[in-house]
Design brief:
With 311 residues, the chain is mainly alpha-helical. The protein has a domain at 266-311. The chain contains 19 helices and no strands. Helix 16 runs antiparallel to helix 17. The longest helix has 17 residues, at 122-138.
Length: 311
Amino acid sequence: MKQLLLIIFIGIFKLGFTQTVDEIYAEANSAIEAKDFKLALKKIDQVIQLDAENIDYYGSKAYVLFELERFQDAYDFYNEAILIFPEAASLYNDRGCLLLSFQEFELAAEDFTTAMEYAENDSIKNSAITNRATTKMATREFIGAYQDLMLAYAFDSTNIATLTNLGAIMDEIGRGDETLKYLLKAVEVDPDFYPAYGNIGFKYQEMGEHEKAIAYYDKVLAFNPDEPLGYSNRSYNKLKLGDTKGAIKDIDKSIKLYPENSYAYRIRALIYLEVDKPDKACADLQTAINYGFTEMYGEEVIGLQSQFCNR
């Protein structure tokens, strides 16, 4: 009799502490919010063991692996998940974002296209279209990017990313008179979305209105004092206004925050040329090339090298 009572007691004890899959997944999401990604990974592994048919768990695990900087593991896990869910648009879209972050543009574009084909709703399809447009912009396929962005704009004319990217691309397709239309609409929709202010500043920069450009980059840096592109672009406009000391201070800050930015080295090279330091300028021009300036922005830096360095 005592043995029977002991068995019943143990059974009740276990039942009282059994968690549901939803409860464990909620704990995983709480850990993600708290940026405790190791705990989140442990919890997500638990829920996948308990319920291997829920696609959301797979996307969450890949995201956590990425946040843990286990990038190859994240990519491999997306591949495993897609074998299980071969028509899951969200997995292709998310894997495409991972590939895009590592400048695997062709593979990323393929994933976004597949996500569009399998999208079970307009929201996912629009996300994939917008992401594919970003990929095309990165590879200077501006006409294709514009076509994708207009599809996204037709779906949602208030989407901040779509408006900002449209503003960024109009000059590239010869429709620069429409740039501010989209950018000003973006800040109207969300006055706190500081990247749009940066693009407005860049438009004024291209128009030669450098004081206005600086004012908008000041807004960017007021929202985010650690935004490297705010410093690099403000630096260029200070250079154009003859403020070389302010320009070098800003560009050095930008490079410290984002040392892989090829465009920043191009700007610093221009400053060094202005203050007659060609050796430093040529070193920065080469660094810009090493970080992919030509692939991203064209052959300007190569031209500067030919003019000032190959003597």
